[in-house]
What we know:
There is one protein chain. The chain folds into three domains: 8-84 and 224-304 and 443-492, FAD/NAD(P)-binding domain (3-Layer(bba) Sandwich), CATH 3.50.50.60; 109-218, no CATH class; 305-429, Guanine Nucleotide Dissociation Inhibitor, domain 2 (2-Layer Sandwich), CATH 3.30.519. It is 36% helix and 17% strand. The protein has helices at 16-27, 65-74, 108-118, 122-145, 152-156, 158-166, 173-178, 184-191, 210-218, 226-241, 281-288, 298-302, 336-343, 388-406, 422-429, 474-492; strands spanning 8-12, 31-35, 47-50, 53-56, 85-87, 92-96, 101-104, 221-223, 244-246, 253-255, 262-264, 274-277, 309-318, 327-331, 354-357, 371-380, 414-420, 461-463. The longest helix is centred in the N-terminal third of the chain and has 24 residues, at 122-145. The relative contact order is 0.19. Residues 12-18, 35-38, 43-45, 58-61, 63, 250-251, 278-279, 283, 310, 377, 429-430, 436-437, 465-466, 472-475, 477 line the site of flavin-adenine dinucleotide. Flavin-adenine dinucleotide is lined by residues 12-18, 35-38, 43-45, 58-61, 63, 250-251, 278-279, 283, 310, 377, 429-430, 436-437, 465-466, 472-475, 477. Keywords: Carotenoid biosynthesis, Oxidoreductase. Residues 17-489 form the Amine oxidase domain. GO terms for molecular function: oxidoreductase activity. Pathway: Carotenoid biosynthesis.
Amino acid sequence: MQSLDGESVVVIGAGVGGLSTACYLADAGADVRVIEKNEQLGGRASRLERDGFRFDMGPSWYLMPDVFERFFDHFDRTPTDYYGLTHLDPHYRIFFKDGDEVDVTPELERTKRVFESYEDGAGEALERYLEKSRENYEVGMEHFVYEDRSKLRDYLDLDVARQARGLSLLGSMQGHVEDYFDHPKLQQIMQYTLVFLGGSPKNTPALYNLMSHVDFNLGVWYPEDGVGGVIDGIAELGRELGVEYETNRPATGIKGREGAFLVETPEGPLRPDLVVSNADYPHTDQELLPEERQGYDADYWDSRTYAPSAFLLYLGVEGDVDELAHHTLVLPTDWEEHFDQIFEEPAWPDDPAYYCCVPSETDDDVAPDGHSNLFVLVPIAPGLEDTPEQREQYRDLVLDDLADHTGTDLRDRIVLEERFCIEDFANRYNSYNGTALGLAHTLRQTALFRPPHRAKRVDGLYMVGGDTTPGIGVPMCLISGELTAEAVLEDHG
Length: 493
Ligand SMILES: Cc1cc2nc3c(=O)[nH]c(=O)nc-3n(C[C@H](O)[C@H](O)[C@H](O)COP(=O)(O)OP(=O)(O)OC[C@H]3O[C@@H](n4cnc5c(N)ncnc54)[C@H](O)[C@@H]3O)c2cc1C
């Protein structure tokens, strides 16, 4: 068995990818220290706690439970050793702004009837669509997600090429969904999952229809204590394996190479044999490495397609918000304009598509008695002007919109309010232009076209997290940790 006995590794950043790879590396015998610039572990999956309210600041959908099971199983544990799980019913609710309301539930027959009510034959089309997406999920996970195909030659293998063709890798999601459903609302339901990948129906390859298998078939779950509870679990596992964590310790530079690194921090340098960076790729490449060691130039990072940023309102409110489910989407009937205002002509959306999360519907511990805890998330273009006046104006627009289209009027009931937007993403996570999620999953930024786990010009420096493969999302970043550790073991084990 390969081992990293005697190797010291510094992991920069305690996001899901950093925490995950730290577990794999410690398990392989390395002496692992994770340093994190912020005051808590979790990265984008941080928690906000105020006046008896507790919010997951970022991820709130626990999807792909199989990925978490596989992760913990590697260490002879199960997720339930660390947190319980509740299957949500409904998985989510959608309010279309013209007045319709649809629940997507764990019961497929019920969802088929809803689809049928919009379009003759759509129930059966849904079944076919989900069957295709299940096949894509199985092929995609086995051949492309769990295996790190970071070089073109990996794809020239005939068998792999055949699998890739089977996934209809090249077409857009828009075209793929239109092949099955004519009704625009059904198309929207099937395409919404792309927001998880930071893309739009036009710029995301059809391969990602596997996301429908994720949400319709594998289900939407709520972990005990929210996604923060999952972070606690992974960090706890790391401690059991010997990982050490230091918060409030930013890296300010990476010097040297394998065996003789100098990781600069305001508290003094660290001198590990190997370094893994979980900080956003552009930050590590352009701000932590000296110019002669950077893998890319500024033009490269400038020319990438970034996933949206987000305008977030964390709200503690008096009373219930019964109209909303744990997960609720509010969608304009024509949402092309919103996507255009994210990807084509960046602007604050006039008629936003947004998401509300109400964990207090499921969990009594996240809000004081008689109160509800919710957050509202509007995806917006990264790099927009983000001023206090703009936030104030947009907050009013969103709360008015929520009242108009869901019947949930929060305006006189808010007892706690925090806002989080582009500037906060940039400052808190060192994210490029304040993107919430990193590099979008366009065709040109999928699989081998994402930046590699091995830094291009520094031996012994590795990258992990949402900007690498497989990509965005908590499950993907967990897997990214596994792939990065495999690369380290291949080179040093
Ligand atoms: C609002 C929002 C909602 C989301 N919803 C979901 C969801 O419902 N389900 C889902 O699966 N995913 C969701 N995601 C995506 C998911 O949260 C991310 O893809 C994932 O958590 C990113 O993990 P990562 O490994 O890339 O690390 P990150 O979370 O990006 O963490 C990187 C860490 O590095 C630290 N760092 C940066 N620079 C330095 C430095 N110089 N020195 C030390 N530390 C540094 C940062 O502070 C951060 O803690 C959401 C994300 C956001 C923002």
